[in-house]
Amino acid sequence: MSSDIEPNDDMILEVRNLSVSFSRGGKQMKAVDDVSFTVAAGETLGLVGESGSGKTTIGRAILRLLPDANTKAEGDVRYKKTYLNTLSNADMRHMRDRLQMIFQDPLSSFNPRRNVEDIVAEGLVIQGRPASERKSRVEAALSAVGFDPASVAGRRPHQFSGGQCQRIAIARSLAVEPELIVCDEPVASLDVSVQAQVINLLQDIRESRNLALIFISHDLAVVKNVSDRVAVLYMGRIVEIGTGPQIYERPAHPYTRTLLEAVPVVDATHKIEPDGKRTVMPSRNRPEGGCAFRSRCPRASEVCAQNVPTLQPAPRGQMVACHHPHDEPAPGMAA
Ligand SMILES: Nc1ncnc2c1ncn2[C@@H]1O[C@H](COP(=O)(O)OP(=O)(O)OP(=O)(O)O)[C@@H](O)[C@H]1O
């Protein structure tokens, strides 16, 4: 059986055994723990998990955008034949033409004194492209995200809505013609109607350019329609990874089911189970040994406290890290 973490011919990105820890007050805190996955050309991988599960850290680690001072990253990140983790800072800067990242709050990444044309041209200036080529590439990128270049190029970022700013950020990424974009919660701060527009835009661009996307969200529903495969993260580890139908129709991990049922979280330390019981959530410190989800898991048994579950093939073909995976369809799904 082919595994979701095994490379294939179309694969352009391979993340293998990635771990990231931050030092805080003299202590090491592991934000990402032994994560492996691949992304193929033109594929969208959804990366889902609740706040603090390590999604942004994975995205930043791929592009080497983590702060050096308090960060320790281990493992390999391979883009085609190049191990990004071994590159000099200068070579990595060049590599960012191929791999880009967009963020939840694009406005904060724009220089407010610059106009849209200069913002979209930023990567092209770093590449040393001549002015005439910059102009035509900026126009093409702005058109690709649905703007009339002549009417927006001279305006400043604060004159645009949140959705429009995200489209400018997407145009800035597209201008350097990347092959992969990490989209970190790109619609989380937008109105629902605008969310759909931005998601549709990303889909269209992906299809027309055979772009690969890593689409980060805390919400499984948001990534459902955009992802070919979905990886579910819990406390820095992938607990389940598979295709859309595997994850949404037959989720095998109890945590994936919790996310799908959208159980309301009361506060940071308690949540309400479907039967109304309040469950204490584990602290951000990973429990020693065993499965990190066990204190929230209705299926937990003794073995869950003893052994860390590793990703194994589930009957429906996805990979799941659980000692007691589900095999029945999700509630409301046909068998
Ligand atoms: N630069 C940093 N220094 C110290 N700790 C950090 C740093 N960046 C992230 N962390 C910690 O690492 C853990 C994972 O954070 P991360 O932002 O990757 O999670 P996330 O899943 O993207 O969450 P969110 O959806 O809230 O952004 C968190 O506990 C966070 O506080």
TrEMBL record:
It is a peripheral membrane protein. The keyword Nucleotide-binding applies. It comes from Devosia yakushimensis. This is ABC transporter ATP-binding protein. Keywords: ATP-binding, Nucleotide-binding, Transport. Residues 15-260 form the ABC transporter domain. It is found in: Cell inner membrane. Residues 315-335 are annotated as: Disordered. One of its GO terms (molecular function) is ATP binding. Belongs to the ABC transporter superfamily.
